[in-house]
Amino acid sequence: MLITNQQKLISTHFFYWFLLWTLLLQFIVWQIETTPSMANFIEHGLAQISGQLYNFYSQQWLVTDNKIIHSDSLRFVYVDRSCTGLSLIATLTAAFFSLSFSWSKKITMVIIAALLIQIENLIRITHLFHLVKQVDNDFDFYHLYIWQLTNFIVALLIFYALIWIYNKNNKH
């Protein structure tokens, strides 16, 4: 199937805007992550919420700074800047901002995507915390492979689902 000139123009337009927005938003993420007060606030908050989620399984945990600690085994997960999901949210935001929707729809898509990414991120942190309790665990395998693949797939699903939803709503 041949791509028309209009489709090429739209693709090129998206690509250039996506690169520009990505650079800008990743710079903002870098600023947030290198500002100790902001980074600590976000990391501690994620650790605290993940601990509360883990509460459904066990009450034997505590949070100290950015560490979620099993109070019985003293094994812990450290929530650092790579655990915040901000970089993934910035990339999704860049993609949404590069689309040809109205700004109100773009902002709505970004808010929905950010919430869904953070929900998935909290489940990820909680799962990794659960794994680390055991002496023989597959923490590295899940952390480096399974959850990275899951993050990627979830981000793609969110991106395409929101586009589909908003395109469907435009037709009615």
Description:
The chain has 172 residues and is mainly α. Helices cover 72% and strands 6% of the residues. It is built from five helices and three strands. A three-stranded antiparallel beta sheet has the order 1-2-3, with helices on one face. Helix 1 (5-33) runs antiparallel to helix 3 and helix 3 (86-97) runs antiparallel to helix 4 (103-132). The chain is elongated and about 60 Å long. The two termini are 28 Å apart. The relative contact order is 0.11. The model has no long low-confidence stretch (mean pLDDT 91).
Instruction: Give the % helix.
Output: over 70%
Low-confidence stretches: none
Estimated radius of gyration: 19 Å
**Neighbour order of strands in the largest sheet:** 1-2-3
Number of helices: 5
Q: What proportion of the residues form beta strands (DSSP E)?
A: 5-15%
Main beta sheet, described? 3 strands, antiparallel
First-to-last CA distance? 28 Å
Reading the helices and strands in chain order gives HHEEEHHH
Number of strands: 3
Average pLDDT, all residues: 91
Shape: elongated
* Helix/strand/pairing category: mainly alpha
